[in-house]
Amino acid sequence: MSALNLAKRGVLVYQPLTRSSILMTSRVMSAQAPSTSSGQSEIAQRARAHRPLSPDLSIYQPQLTWYMSSFHRVTGAFLAAGLYAGAISYVAAPVVLGMSFDSASIVSAFAALSPAAKFSAKMALALPFTFHSYNGIRHLIWDTGRALTLKGVYTGGYAVLGATALTSAILAAI
């Protein structure tokens, strides 16, 4: 049979789903908690209130990927908060506090710190910056479709941690 004959019979003609399809139906549901009038005991109701709504994370074994994902978000928030705090301080400190917030005053204040305090301050800035940068590069590599196997994910994670530790220590020692 030719395609034209099949089209005449309606075999090859596209027929969209009708509006009465099961995919298009909806129903209204109440968002209220079930009432206790059905005979539920007070103890059962209190027990239900303390149940977790989703699986409790404590039942799962912690993994490197969890920690890396969480730390990536935390470092991103820390870096953004630091950027905003620095910008607001630069603008508001002379007006509100009457303090000079120029580079000369920052350098003199930093020079007065002990070597351990200087290293700690540098490390507090270098660690989140380097981790967030290296982990961002790792995510860009994933976006290309590479290193998405379990071994690749863990190898990349350990590489990010190693590069972060090494680079942060070097930057803090400068």
Automatic annotation (TrEMBL):
The lineage of its organism: Eukaryota, Fungi, Fungi incertae sedis, Zoopagomycota, Kickxellomycotina. It is a multi-pass membrane protein. Keywords: Heme, Iron, Membrane, Metal-binding, Transmembrane, Transmembrane helix. This is Uncharacterized protein. One of its GO terms (biological process) is tricarboxylic acid cycle. It comes from the Eukaryota. One of its GO terms (cellular component) is mitochondrion. The chain crosses the membrane at residues 77-97, 109-131, 152-173. GO terms for molecular function: electron transfer activity; metal ion binding. Pfam families: Sdh_cyt. It is found in: Membrane. Its main location: membrane. The keyword Iron applies.
